[in-house]
Design brief:
The complex is a heterodimer of chains A (about 160) and B (about 750).
Chain A: E1 5-11, E2 14-20, H1 26-33, E3 52-55, E4 58-61, E5 74-76, H2 89-96, H3 106-119, H4 125-131, H5 143-160
Parallel strand pairs in A: 1-5
Antiparallel strand pairs in A: 1-2, 3-4, 3-5
Chain B: H1 18-23, E1 38-44, E2 50-56, H2 58-62, E3 66-71, E4 82-84, E5 89-91, H3 92-99, E6 104-105, E7 111-117, H4 120-129, E8 131-136, H5 143-146, E9 159-162, E10 165-170, E11 173-181, H6 184-190, E12 193-201, E13 213-218, E14 224-228, H7 233-244, E15 251-255, H8 271-281, E16 285-288, H9 291-297, E17 304-312, E18 318-330, H10 337-343, E19 353-361, H11 375-392, H12 397-404, H13 423-432, H14 434-437, E20 445-454, E21 461-467, E22 473-477, H15 485-497, E23 504-508, H16 525-552, E24 560-562, E25 565-568, E26 571-574, H17 575-579, E27 590-595, E28 603-613, E29 620-630, H18 637-656, E30 687-692, H19 714-726, E31 732-733, H20 737-748
Parallel strand pairs in B: 1-16, 9-11, 12-31, 14-15, 18-19, 22-23, 29-30
Antiparallel strand pairs in B: 1-7, 2-6, 2-8, 3-7, 4-5, 9-10, 11-19, 12-17, 13-14, 13-16, 17-18, 20-28, 21-22, 21-27, 24-25, 25-26, 28-29
Classes of the chains: A alpha+beta (about 160), B alpha+beta (about 750).
């Protein structure tokens, strides 16, 4: 075992320091050290997308990032998507469209979809499917997820118009 | 109640647990934390079949941070006996042996030992220091091979049961059964067209995104507390009690949120092991599987070999059908061939039938249920043959199915006679759908159809409902919610009480806090636990009427409840108004419901699939897909559609890509979600749904369980579509690019 390393980050807008072993993934740091268990582990090898977070606005699978690599970074997790007590339009549209069943993949999908809508406010169905292809859902067959993302995009545009 | 009178049933409220699940607050099993928690890791076999000579844990014990190690010898060594752990009688030694191997390992990934340590990395490192000396044995990986004379034998004590009788013959065939109806030889003699084909299907996994997990605390008062993600908290309680040889009352299981199951989270793997580690350390122990562990150490669904022969007359009537079905149980008996045999011809009214089923052990993980277990394999075979016969007769594939469709009064070869079913209505809805007549719009394209059946298992469920002073109610239930059942159950109570779905707060509780409730599985939760909620709500209504009668100084029999308002003569009180007066009229009102419905109903499903086959690469693209299913009465249509879409896509994955790719030594070569290729959003079109509603006579609202039947038809429909697109009849799953190219090349030769 190696000495723990001090890591300084900003998580969901708040400065956050933690100590971690060099071998611990960012996913482990979020879940086990910081108690941010909304980010889920499905495979621990970057293939399912359940642990998706934003690292300086890049979409990453946090199981493939070491905790120490997050030094100085801005991290957004599912816990940072709602504004206080107000759900993000994506969160609302996931609920209204029944776009989740068991819900284990939902945090990853919402974080990934937010990154898409931040840079492409009006994505086509194909663009949504391509963007979300790294996030596996085994319950829904994706249909209602795609619809939820489209609806959220429309709602965000209406608000911004 | 008549359909048109419903105010809640059939609407689409937001699910009660929704906010927690879109904000990351919902706590799943792996999220559980507790002071002093230790972390476990399971050491798994590197061999598919080997005798265990020696397990030496001494080096591992020396590693700093290691607190305890257990092996099979740590289980109470109670004598072997038959135990019913929710899926029929099984020898205790088999149940125990799958959790921690004793004497022999029977598949690669078979659990051998477990370590508890201060963190998960130390536990994993320690497991690597455990020395295991094996005597490798030859392995056998498929049912046809395992059935041959001279095949390596997995269990020296497994003797074949044939037609219900013990033969005394040691073999890998645990059971051979036969269903006979009519005279199959006479039926074939009458036929103008006979088609006989062989099919092979690969082992596939349920593929839930959340790995298995369990935390256990062997408390100082002797009680064993368990927190886990399971489809059945009472199953976990009962199996853990059985393996640890303690009464069920010593164990409390708290079901955490569950990240998918599809049948695979009924079986118990980790809980008894975590409990043993906790007993040794006095601390809570959490074990979470890796994805590789999930593939190699939990139950996939059986691979199978199926032969189907069917005959029909020129007038389009099927005269006889015969099936030979050998399913791979994995390491221990129990392959789901029995339900497969019940479903293989379930969609058809056929007078002369013989079905032979074989439950065969092989050196692969012990299989578990997977959404309509056994039926998808069977329907792939049967629906391919039905399609070929229809083609030979020059009949439209749906007209041919319609002409032979099962209906009320049809007897299945395994015995039961159908009550009201929706098979004809489902096929009719497929025919009427614009998809069926739409142009395909290009070369190398084809359209295929198939139908399938699955049961409602019924089984026990319990609920209580307590009325709050503000006119809302708390509903307590024991069915873990995998896909929105809190809401579909709450809606049935709300309908009875005449209050909005949002005014019913459903909570899934631990095994101490609700009556026995069987698994979330078998398409039973909305059906049976919903029925228990209906009964509990009726009990509340009865008591509330008495309270109203007391206030109005009249007879309870004169009080009626309509749309949430209690009436008697000119008196009226709304549900909330009366709820506010409970303290003055006798105290709280608590309703209870407990049911054990018998398997009434069952659901038929069909699908239309359009595919394009790339003749150069063999890649199959799903262009359009429509799923049709009889829901009886859709309680929450959005979640019914969700079941249909999810089941369809699992069926698509099973058809086109998914398989346990095994090497000769019995090692799974693709045990990651990269190489075990499940469908992504990019692989699919929208999945259209049509909900057919033929009310189930065995449910208060006419609901049929909808969780499973939808996975049954897709592989058959896609195979039939591939035939029309590329001219090749596929007889093997998965129908991946190499298999398609092979078929195309063989046809050219």
């Amino acid at each position: 075992m190696h000495a723990k390393v001090r890591v300084q980050t900003t998580i969901n807008g708040e400065p956050q320091e933690f100590l971690c072993e060099p071998r611990q993934s960012l996913l482990e740091c979020l879940r086990d050290i910081l108690g941010l268990t909304g980010t889920k582990e499905g495979c621990n090898d970057g293939n399912c997308g359940a642990c998706t977070v934003l690292l300086d606005d890049r979409v990453v699978t946090s199981c493939l990032v070491l905790g120490v690599e997050a030094q100085g970074c801005q991290i957004t997790t599912i816990e940072g998507i709602a504004k206080g007590s107000e759900l993000h339009p994506l969160q609302r549209s996931f609920l209204e469209n029944a776009a989740l069943q068991c819900g284990i993949c939902t945090p990853g999908f919402i974080v990934a979809a937010k990154a898409l809508l931040d840079q492409q406010p009006n994505p086509s169905e194909d663009e949504i499917r391509l963007w979300l292809a790294n996030n596996l859902c085994r319950c829904t067959g994706y249909d209602k997820i795609i619809r939820a993302v489209k609806q959220a995009a429309e709602q965000i545009q209406e608000v911004n118009a | 109640m008549k359909t048109q009178e419903y105010t809640v049933v059939g609407t689409r409220p937001v699910r009660h647990d929704g906010a927690d699940k879109v904000t990351g607050r919902a706590l799943y099993g792996a999220d559980f934390q507790m002071a002093g928690l230790l972390y476990g890791h399971i050491l798994r076999s590197q061999h598919a079949h080997a005798r265990i000579r020696r397990i030496d844990t001494s080096k591992a014990e020396q590693l700093p941070g290691v607190k305890a190690i257990v092996t099979a010898g740590d289980f109470p060594q109670t004598p072997d006996r038959l135990v019913d752990l929710g899926e029929g009688d099984t020898p205790l030694s088999y149940a125990r042996g799958n959790v921690l191997a004793k004497g022999k390992v029977l598949y690669k990934g078979h659990a051998l030992a477990a370590v508890a340590a201060t963190n998960v990395h130390i536990a994993e490192e320690a497991a690597g220091l455990i020395e295991v000396e094996y005597e490798a044995l030859p392995c056998v990986l498929t049912a046809p091979e395992a059935m041959q004379d001279g095949a390596p034998i997995l269990h020296d004590d497994l003797k074949t049961k044939e037609f219900g009788e013990q033969t005394g013959r040691v073999s890998n065939v645990a059971e051979h059964f036969r269903h006979v109806m009519g005279d199959v030889n006479a039926g074939f003699a009458e036929a103008d067209v006979i088609v006989e084909r062989e099919f092979h299907t690969a082992t596939v996994h349920q593929g839930y995104i959340e790995p298995h997990n369990a935390t256990a605390l062997w408390n100082n008062d002797g009680r064993i507390l368990v927190w886990c993600s399971t489809q059945g908290s009472f199953v976990v309680r009962d199996v853990t009690a059985c393996l640890l040889d303690v009464p069920v009352s010593r164990i409390k299981v708290t079901p955490m949120e569950i990240g998918g199951g599809f049948g695979g989270k009924i079986n118990v793997y980790l809980e008894p092991v975590a409990a043993l580690l906790s007993k040794k350390t006095g601390k809570p122990v959490k074990i979470v599987m890796s994805r590789k562990d999930v593939f190699e150490g939990t139950g996939p669904t059986p691979g199978s070999y199926i032969k189907v022969k069917m005959g029909a007359r020129k007038d389009g009537r099927i005269t006889a059908a015969q099936a030979y079905m050998a399913y791979e149980a994995g390491a221990y008996p129990g392959s789901m061939v029995a339900p497969g045999a019940m479903c293989v011809f379930a969609a058809y009214d056929i007078s002369n039938v013989v079905i032979d089923g074989f439950d065969v052990v092989v050196n692969k993980p012990s299989t578990a249920a997977y959404r309509a277990p056994g039926a998808t394999n069977a329907a792939f075979a049967a629906e391919s043959v039905v399609d070929e016969i229809a083609e030979k007769l020059g009949a439209d594939p749906l007209d041919f199915r319609l002409k032979n469709a099962a209906k009320e009064g049809t007897r299945r070869a395994d015995g039961p006679k159908y009550r009201r079913i929706g098979c004809v209505e489902v096929i009719q809805a497929m025919k009427n759908h614009p998809h069926y007549s739409a142009p395909l719009g290009g070369p190398n394209r084809g359209r295929g159809v198939a139908v399938g059946f699955w049961f409602n298992v019924g089984l026990p469920s319990s609920c209580t409902i307590s009325v709050s002073a503000d006119g809302t109610v708390n509903l307590v239930e024991g069915s873990t919610d995998i896909g929105g059942t809190r809401t579909s159950i709450a809606m049935q109570a709300a309908e009875v009480l005449g209050i909005p779905a949002e005014d019913v707060r459903p909570t899934v509780v631990d095994t101490d806090s609700v009556g026995f409730t069987a698994v979330t599985g078998g398409s039973r939760t909305t059906f049976a636990t919903g029925w228990a909620a209906y009964e509990a709500a009726q009990d509340v209504v009865r008591q509330m009427k008495e309270r109203a009668a007391k206030i109005w100084e009249t007879e309870a029999a004169s009080v009626t409840l309509e749309r949430g308002v209690f009436h008697s003569a000119d008196k009226r009180l709304t549900f909330p108004e009366l709820a506010a007066k409970l303290d003055q009229t006798g105290g709280p009102v608590v309703g209870r419901g407990a049911v054990n419905p018998r398997g009434v109903g069952g659901s038929f499903s069909g699908c239309i699939a359009d595919v394009e086959v790339d003749p150069e690469t063999g890649k199959v693209t799903i262009l359009r897909f429509t799923s049709v299913q009889d829901a009886g009465k859709a309680i929450h249509p959005s979640y019914v559609e969700g079941q249909m879409q999810g089941g369809s896509v699992q069926g698509i994955g099973w058809a086109l890509n998914e398989e346990y790719y095994m090497n000769e030594a019995g090692s799974m070569m693709n045990s990651s979600l990269l190489d075990y290729r499940m469908p992504t959003a990019l692989d699919l079109p929208m999945i259209d749904t049509v909900i057919v509603e033929v009310p189930n006579p065995g449910h208060p609202f006419g609901a049929r369980g909808v969780g499973e039947a939808n996975i049954v038809p897709p592989p058959g429909a896609i195979a039939n579509a591939i035939y029309r697109a590329a001219g090749v009849r596929m007889n093997r799953l998965p129908m991946n690019p190499p298999a398609i190219m092979q078929a195309i090349w063989s046809q050219r030769d």
